[in-house]
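Z., the sequence and structure:
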Amino acid sequence: MGLSSLDYFIILFYLLAIAIWGIISGGKQKSTFDYFLGSKKIPWWAVCFAIVATETSTLTFISIPGVAYATNLNFLQLTFGYILGRIFIAIFFLPAYYKGSVETAYKFLENRFGIKVRKSASAVFMITRLFADGVRLYATAIPIKLITGIDYPTAILITAIATLLYTYIGGIKAVIWMDVIQMFVYLFGAGAAIFVLFKQLDINLLSILNSTDLTEKISIINIGIGNNIQNFFSIPYTLPASIIGGMFLSMASHGTDQLIVQRLLSTDSLSNSKKAIITSGFIVLIQFAIFLFIGILLFMFYNGIKMDPNEVFTKYIIEHIPSGISGLIISGLLAAAMSTLSGSMNSLASALMFDFLKPKFNFSIEKELKLSRILTFAWCCLLVLSAFLFMNTTKTVVELALSIASFTYGGMLGLFLLGIFFQKISQIDALIAFALGIAIMIIVILFTKIAWTWYILIGSFFTILSGNLSSYTRVFIKK
């Protein structure tokens, strides 16, 4: 069908409205405490919605329906692990963060080990986030180019500039409140797609659940017991791999990544941070179910014909969504992208300011705030350049984004677990363990066929093992 004038008007109106309202909602910033932590006055439910929106990128919006289209609903098993991982964070990580004055996740590592560990972890976070979210920004440009016809660089710049406007001025308050709105925008877009698909297929939910032709397609649980050991570890969505992998992924991404931890530190109490992180897990479960269900409906619509799962939802939007609703769905796609991008800009700027610049330089409050905005702008530019870097990649964007994070998440999580549970580990032990954990993950990812759902568990295990071996070796040599 293509886009109509009405669709373009809806998209333009959305971009302008979100930028203006984001600036207003951010309020006046007086210090970096306001700019990066929202004065610790953000309601827990807003933080909860912001967490969900931040972890929902264009990859989720476009690719998760493609997963269900190509396979079944086994992917939903991951969310069971997500919930367990968040409960673990609430019990063990958050109390550790609230014991002292912690501005970033990595300040905890300084309190526990020393400044070198803090800077090392923060630097790894910044590099990982820069490239992983560069991929996500590029991923946003793919459906926008296919739908509107504009080129990749223009689509990337439009998304980045609209996001920068409110992030630069309003700081974390604007980011969180816009995330709340954007979560409902992209879910509304997903709901609109489901509504149209139901009408075009002329079916109801009961007929889908009772269809014998779809029994395997709507299967959620895959026990995976029948596989031999080699195949067991190479299949990503068995129940054990999904629960363990989802749990460790959630612990790493939500317990050690400044992108999420920054939001958890913006509430006024430990109990509110706990409510925000745990509730977000159940919302993500519902959200993934919605996006996977779109994939099932698309499978029925196209009669299961073979096509690129990353393009099936985009193809449907272009060819079959009525005028007006297309604009709403594309606005939802942009909402998913902007919520992640705004969080990246702000969290990257906060890590550089708090972990590197503020401890070294004695800035005035006014200079700190001004520099923080400059850093936000600079990270936006770097994220755009990172997105440009991936425009000629031959790998699918989902594989690319997951593989980038997988290289470092295991080592990062292992480092935090060493800090929380192993009191005899010193700074040198932690640095050795962190380096070895990342090195081992490079080998595992590049030279084995182990499924990605096992990566973070393996990386964490070897990081913890390396730290303890280093500690015991030092003690033995001294004796």
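The chain has a mean pLDDT of 92. The first helix runs from residue 5 to 26.

Let me know what you think.
H.
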